[in-house]
Automatic annotation (TrEMBL):
GO terms for biological process: cell wall organization. Residues 1-27 form the signal peptide. It comes from Paraburkholderia ribeironis. This is P pilus assembly protein chaperone PapD-like protein. InterPro entries: Ig-like_fold, PapD-like_sf, Periplasmic_pilus_chap, Pili_assmbl_chaperone_N. Keywords: Signal. The lineage of its organism: Bacteria, Pseudomonadati, Pseudomonadota, Betaproteobacteria, Burkholderiales.
Amino acid sequence: MKRTRLLHALCSGLLVSLLAAGGGADASGLQVAPTTLSLKPAQNADGLWLSNTGESVVHAQVRVYHWTQDSQGDQLTESRGLVISPPMLQLAVGDRQLVRVIRVGAPPTGAGAVEDAYRLAIDELPVDAQGKPGLQFVLHYSVPVFIQPAGAAAAPPQLQWSLLRDGDHVMLQVSNHGGSHAQLAGLSYVDTMGRRTDITPGLLGYVLAGATMRWMLKPSAAIFAAGGTLEAMVNGEKATQNLSLADRSH
């Protein structure tokens, strides 16, 4: 089994590559919906719609990776835990295709079972652009797929937040002691004087069940020195946490 490091940008959901040529730019039309899947214990399959909103034929490939997190961050391992049908497809202009995502085997079971996680790497395949001027945009999507455990529902995420100093920089550490993932987005920090500092307007990343993740923050350590409140969207709901560089709280 081939094991690869997952780049942070890939885990953020979408990458755009450029195939160099001279001239202008040719926009791709590959679209994917929905951007996240969650399979219930009794649910053996779900689906994604791939569509072509561009002006030329799109060729795409879908691959499956088991997704874990460790001290080095996100990790992907090629997996047969999900079957994709079809794994390769061609979309004419204006077409769309349902891609089935089929679970192989039973969902997580047993006392304390937690949610399992996969990533679908959906790659637009470059076409032969010989004689065609301009840049060709090639899209890469990374779609999370979560498998809920059998029996009782997985415990919701239980997050422990910490701010760690690294010279003049600050690292945010988040540990998830719950049984399901936490999606973190829209982070900002409000100090004791009421001054707000935006950290990231969009998606920061995920913390899987039982995992710990760290992110280096752009604001300097001085912003956090006097303490304040970290605000974030966790799985789409607003959460607040009082934190300073000296704090380590639940």
